Amino acid sequence: MPKMPVMEAVVKILEDEGVDVVFGIPGAAILPLYKALSKSQKIRHLTVRHEEGATHAADGWARVTGKVGVAIGTSGPAGTNMITGLYTCQGDSIPIVCITGQAVRPILHKEAFQAVNIAEIAKPVTKKTYCVLETAQIPQVFREAFKIAREGRPGPVLIDLPLDVQRGEVEYDPAIDAPLEVFKPSPDSRKIRRAVEMLLQAQRPILMMGGGVMLARACEEFVALAEHLQIPVIPTYMAMGGIPADHPLYGGMATSTSSPPNWARSSRPISASSRTPSWRWRPCCGSPGR
Q: Which residues fall within 8 angstroms of residue 196, CB to CB, at 6 or more apart?
């Protein structure tokens, strides 16, 4: 099996995972990756002014394209600057992979310059974090990261790479490597049947459109279902624009702060692709009570 610089293998994996744009700021502790990126004919790098901006840009790119967004930063404050963007993606179920540089292994956990333990800091706001201490593990870690970001409820993953690990070589053959299979569960007909029964039995049903409907590009189908059943729709913040505000079945927006008026209380709210415990209903101005 051929040997190559491990960061060149990483770039080939990024290309194979469908990455064509990455956002970041070069820095000393991540330069081996940037050197490999400079040779890529498929990936365009956009330099941002702040690492938080890189995560937000990767977030927006993922929302618009449906691909996994990628943000890159160096060690220390670059990683901590990414935390807000990681938390946003965790809350909104957006798949991104953040790659950070790190100090060399011998000085980790010794309070060295910019040797912050970003993998531990980012754990609460990601699906998974890695601090890769062996060069040979890097290709598998990147494949796992993209699988985890996409699978189930999508979300962010962070990979921290010590500088000396980035400088190593690895046995890697792109011809026999491929993205890991992402498990997608089939619809459960029993649950669907039960939801339909609940809707048909309800006196004042309402449909809550969540952000997952937007991410699945299923707004037209959702609105068509509401029109067929003649049931009002209330979108969450993440689903704003999923149903036009002037649509006859638009029932106002669901918020996490306002109290529901009496006419907006539904006997059977059905939520699709949203996290509902704290949501309330806010009526749109002039909407008739339903």
A: none
